[in-house]
């Protein structure tokens, strides 16, 4: 496998886009999530009619969105063949991934679901040295250049050796906890065992405890 392309900026290696053609990935690390694994997901039903187990086909917008870019950035159209949702084992990781950029938690209009996997999931592991084995740098887990990280997501999704994968496992940019980008290939592999508004009294109590520990203010509801 070819070594990752590197550009030096300020004496440090900087993230660049994927190669123009797929390269062999014999050392790519594939992680397995066994059936029965519990994942948390925060989502907004509007404006894309998202449900607890559905995928967002509008994109690309977020870090590892693999949608083909049909127009301006961020996308204004849907890619009907490519859907995604983000999840994490912990509620804390979900909160900081969803609200960390603004560093203010606004629970209005959002929901949280706990999903139990009903089948095994295979995901490309990008944590630590996994990113290098996948052809890039560990910086892809935190880098703010969304157009570059999305290029890599499309590259892995389309790679002939990775076509059976269900998504990506990465380190959350805000607290380094495990997070997942789940592709539409995994449809039907999740069973919602909880689905409630973030403003639900019990959910909100837990949310406030986590937000206070992170020094993140919470918008009044």
Account of the protein in words:
Helices cover 18% and strands 23% of the residues. The protein is of the alpha+beta class and 221 residues long. It has one domain (30-213). The strands form 3 sheets. It has a 5-stranded mixed sheet, with no helix packed on it. Strands 4-6-10 form a 3-stranded antiparallel sheet. Strand 8 and strand 9 (178-183) form a beta hairpin. The N and C termini lie far apart (52 Å). Mean pLDDT is 90; it is low at 6-11.
Q: Please give the domain count.
A: 1
Radius of gyration: 17 Å
Strand order of the largest sheet: 3-7-8-9-5
β-sheet strand percentage: 15-25%
Look at the structure and give the mean pLDDT: 90
- Flag low-confidence runs: 6-11
- Overall body shape: globular
Main sheet makeup:
5 strands, mixed
Counting DSSP E segments of at least 2 residues, the number of strands comes to 10
- Structure classification: alpha+beta
Order of helices and strands: EEEEEHEEHHEEEH
Q: For the terminal residues, how far apart are their CA atoms?
A: 52 Å
Helix content range of the residues, please? 10-25%
Count of helical stretches: 4
